[in-house]
Amino acid sequence: MPHDKLTIVEVKTWPLRYKRRVPMFDARLGYESRESLLVEVVTNKGVTGIGEAAVFGGSLPVVAAAVRKLADLIIGENPLYVEKIWEKCYQSSWQWGQRGVFLMALSGIDIALWDIVGQLSELPLYQIFGACRDELPGYASGGFYEEGKNIADLQKECARYVEQGFKAVKIKVGRRPSEFLPLHTHCRSSLEEDVQRVKAVRQAIGDKVTLMLDANNAWDPKTAVKAIEHFEPFDPYFIEEPVPVENLSGSAWVKRVSRVPIAGYETLSIHARWGYQELLQKEAVDIVQFDVTWCGGLTEARKIAHLAAAHQLVCIPHCFSSAVALAATLHLLCSIPNSAYIEIDVTPNPLRDEIISEPFIVTNAGTVKAPKNPGLGIKMDWKAIKRYTIE
User: Fold this and answer.
1) Do 54 and 109 contact (CB within 8 A), yes or no?
2) 211 Cβ contact partners less than 8 Å away, ≥ 6 residues apart
3) pLDDT in tens, 85-105
4) Ordered structural domains, the chain, with CATH
5) Global model pTM greater than 0.90
6) Residues 6+ apart with CB under 8 A from 265
7) I want to staple 39 with a disulfide (CB 3.0 to 4.6 A). Which of 108, 167, 196, 308 is the partner?
8) 3-state SS record for 34-82
9) In terms of DSSP bridges, do strands 236-240 and 367-369 run parallel, antiparallel, or are they unpaired?
């Protein structure tokens, strides 16, 4: 195929939604459904790439509209010129975006373009990027608050993840009334109750399994330090996003005085590499977290990962969406030396398990293997996708 004749002819969006039977809650938000926006880039030669645009805390129609806006810019472009297309979209949006929803939309397009590159090269993306490994330890991301869910239920949940092969488990903390988060009306949890939850989970999973905690921007710095001191006896691997992302100086102070490593900030993804440059300059974290569907796609995520490497920091990105996001994140992490774990959403989510023909599995060693097929290496189940597609 003469690749110089290859052009983008269409960009499609697939808004997906799965309604949960029971809402779940983290430290700040409630989730009655799981949503994903898939982005399909179609070429004139029949090669099609799939990507995903984040919709966290936002609106499927709004992000889809942003994708359509960007599509007008890239129709007719050669999809192999990924960096050129990224810059064209970014530079053309300086008066209306360059952050937030714009980056979410660009992420979906960018991932789809890399999928096309991989297919035409007949190589999986992690090898195109320069493979460092072909599998990575996965951590079970669950432990949410739910109405009627008690400590014994939480223990059984986390013990089940260990039985499934996971060697690391993450749970939520920080859901308590405060002057910073006055809107909580469900699943309130005091610090004392959270300490009991963490203690119970440590007992359930044993001392050899890694325990991670996620506060989702819930605390002011002094409260964060107090909470971390209470959690420290249970040997957490990290505490994620202890303070609001707007307070990077506060996070830096928490990092300096805490003996538990600080991870963050996925919510900084809306500022692309420039947000992480500030994060690193302020020495606000020990572990760098971003999201490939949120920060501008694989093109931008690789730049952020390299920034982290320059500061000798490990990357453990946020990955809590569909199977497309999981595939893209896994390829990225298998291509860089400064990766440690991949986040595996273990809550009920057919957008993770049903929309691809071969769902990802955790091995007995607790690892997840990168797909060997070209591009993202996943085969979409379009019947399942249409089943969860909304108008």
Assistant:
1) no
2) 168, 169, 170, 171, 198, 201, 202, 205, 234, 235, 236, 237
3) 999 999 987 767 778 889 999
4) 3-122 (3.30.390.10), 126-376 (3.20.20.120)
5) yes
6) 217, 241, 245, 248, 251, 279, 284, 285, 289
7) 108
8) EEEEEEEEEECCCCEEEEEECCCCCCHHHHHHHHHHHHHHHCCCCCCCH
9) unpaired
DSSP 8-state code for residue 316: -
In whole angstroms, what is the distance from residue 304 CA to residue 324 CA? Answer: 20
Distance of CA 60 to the CA centre of its chain: 17
Nearest-angstrom CA–CA distance, 52 and 38: 4
Tell me how far CA of residue 81 lies from CA of 29, 89, 184, 216, 324, in angstroms.
Answer: 39, 12, 46, 36, 21
The token pair that represents 279 in the structure block: 């994060």
Q: Say how many CA atoms lie within 13 Å of 103 toward its Cβ.
A: 25
Pairing of strands 314-315, 135-141: unpaired
Question: Which pLDDT tens digit goes with each residue over 157-180?
Answer: 999 999 999 999 999 999 875 555
Q: Say which amino acid occupies 163.
A: E
- Distance separating alpha carbons of residues 79 and 297, to the nearest angstrom: 14
Q: What is the DSSP string of 242-300?
A: -S-TT-HHHHHHHHHH-SSPEEE-GGGGGGHHHHHHHHHHTT--SEE---TTTTTSHHH
